# Entry
Amino acid sequence: MDQQQAIQAATGHFGKILQQQLQRVERLKSEGPWTDYSKVRPIIVGVLGGDGIGPSICVEAQRVLERLLQPAIQEGKLVIRVIEGLTIENRAAHKKAIPDDVLAEIKKCHVTLKGPTHTPEKGDPWPNIESANVAMRKELDLFANVRPVRVPKEGIDWIFFRENTEDLYAVGSQGINVTPDLAVDFRVITTQGSLRIIEAAFDHARRAGKKHVAIVTKANIIKTTDGKFLDVARAVASRYPEITWEGWYVDIMSANLINPRRRKEFQVFALPNLYGDILTDEAAEIQGGVGTAGSANLGKRYAMFEAIHGTAPRMVREGRAQYADPSSVMRAGAMLLQHIGFEELGGRLHQALDVCGQYERKVAVTGRSNGATGREFGDYVLATVQDPQLPARWQQYVHA
Ligand code: IPM
Ligand code: MG
# Structure
């Protein structure tokens, strides 16, 4: 292929991407309202174990949810349903990020709790299919990736609103090698996509009585797309006069998060997808590791809750899967409870996880055989979450 042909082929490919994305913008314009779970009966909660350490940590979260929700299940308000088949083996066999029958089952649920799923990369033994996470976020339009990070004793109480469907992720598997030497990926930011995530962040701030929102971009360099994100933020912010906001660049923000003098000032963050991916891993590490952080992937219709980390293939290879920390998926479970209207139960599970994982640590998971197994930690959380003294136990540490 000569250069002219290469450019032509690439331009054609680019045209198709633009078409797809413009169609998506049209869909965003006619998006429905948020699901009102108080009107949904029964609420169907799907559980997907995933790959690697996924099944062993997910089952612990499932046990806790089943216990807490037992009365609701008995009253027919809610159903917990295990969905099989979102495994790398099955996905590889179908050469699909999410096999059709699995996706159909997922769509029958209102919300799901999901273990991490393996994302193949070039050179893997698996076909280089799209990430199941990314596919699910796109397929169910789960645009808000909400990731709280709390270290009460250091005064850290952050919540990240990471945009979840756009940016370099929107067409991350559709980049092109224009020639053997020139590779190009595409970054997508839309007005509608920016608007809904930034509004979600400001709405949260308003509801939670928070005073400050940080918008994180690299708009000094990535002028068009990050520039749009920032413009939309400016417009949204003007509708929330009681909340102050600031734009920050992602590099200095990553430094701020580890600056003990500065970091307490931040409360709510809104940011495009990739910056959010990176900063939330950093933030989670400050809380005690990515194994302790859960996240909500919210769309107006569906929602999915998961750990923020991956499948930990090294742990599995070394035979340590049973020592993996289930806190992350349990946190996700607590967020799930709060999202579907079981506010009090979710709050209690968060408290139990603070007590078990950050304060008392009577049963501590280390990821190795010198620590507890996930099952033992699960038993500890189960006992703690059911302890009538839990609120007092928790208070005592928070004010220590
Ligand atoms: C996350 C993960 C995913 C992402 C991967 C597994 C596709 O890192 O949820 O943060 O990049 O979003
Ligand atoms: Mg990540």
User: Anything to note?
Assistant: The chain has two domains: 1-30+147-298, 35-142+300-400.
